[in-house]
Design goal:
about 190 residues; alpha/beta; Rossmann fold; 6-stranded parallel sheet; 7 helices; 6 strands; about 35% helix
């Protein structure tokens, strides 16, 4: 089975995340997308980052009606701060019959060569890259790499930061969130 790993804080998860993940799983060779909720880095200021399990709950609620999209808390049990290479190594040991790939925006691809052991990641894993709005094409030193696959996913310019600010300012952003996520945020009074 081919699994695409979509890492993020998902603070909160929104329809942009779902549109991209669903497009990736339906228009690539991937069988499932796992939303890997990244834990709060203990060395960074918390700001408005919700608790790990509250964000996982939102991802669970957002994906429960999609057979091919799954929440993952895999990084919660790994030592912090964590690196993607460590998560991939752990997952490969735990699920030796699965093939893991990374899902990332083309803006992240630009700095991918700065990631810890990025060469090893590329040696053992595919990267599926979705477009971002930018001035022209984002040039990287990895543009022609055989393990990097651009996917013409819809460009989604929705950000979790915008959603949090809008909620704080009492704006109606309900259409930007899956209904179950909106209900949870409203019920828990998050970001207000």
């Amino acid at each position: 089975m081919k699994i695409g790993l979509y890492f993020g804080s998902f603070n909160p998860i929104h329809i942009g995340h779902l549109v991209i993940a669903n497009h990736m799983v339906e228009h690539s060779h991937l069988d499932q997308i796992w939303f890997v909720v990244t834990p709060h880095n203990p060395f960074k200021k918390k700001n408005s980052l919700l608790d790990n399990y509250q964000r996982l709950e939102m991802v669970y609620r957002a994906t429960k009606t999609y057979d091919k999209l799954k929440p993952s808390d895999i990084e919660f049990s790994l030592p912090q701060p964590n690196y993607t290479i460590n998560t991939l190594t752990y997952l490969q040991e735990k699920h030796p019959k699965y093939e893991f790939s990374l899902i990332m925006g083309e803006d992240n691809l630009k700095s991918f060569h700065k990631w810890k052991n990025y060469e090893l990641i590329l040696k053992n894993h595919e990267l599926y890259v979705y477009p971002r709005i930018s001035k022209g094409k984002i040039e990287t030193q990895l543009d022609k790499h055989p393990k990097i696959h651009p996917v013409a996913a819809p460009i989604m310019e929705i950000s979790s930061t915008f959603i949090r600010k809008s909620i704080k300012n009492k704006k109606n952003i309900k259409p930007l969130l899956p209904q179950h996520v909106w209900d949870y945020l409203d019920e828990m009074n998050f970001y207000k």
